[in-house]
Amino acid sequence: MTFRDQPLLHHEGPPRRQETTPRDIPSPSMPSDMQPFIWQQLGEIQKCLGRLEAGQDDIKGRLEKVEEKTSKTSEKLSRILWIGAGAGAVIGILVSIATSLLKYLPK
Fold this sequence. Notes:
This protein is mostly helical. It has one helix at residues 31-102. The chain has a domain at 48-107. The radius of gyration is 46 Å and the shape is rod-shaped. It starts with 30 loop residues before the first helix and ends in a 5-residue tail after the last helix.
């Protein structure tokens, strides 16, 4: 038995590419087959959007409370500052009157 007569243990070269015919290519899924899946996914998306909207409403409510508290605090601070300014002006006037009256008191 010669070398050429021995059986091949491996195939020669890369495998040949098989020719495909149109009937071998799978057809895309029909829309009717996809409808239940699509409706299910749309339902999940709607649920997710509903949760997001509820979260936005919650955040909006919290922001409104913070704005309300901030405006109340600002109003209180403004009143305190006006009262302080008024009290300072009154004290200044009283000190001015007292110093001017001290000139007329006997020593």
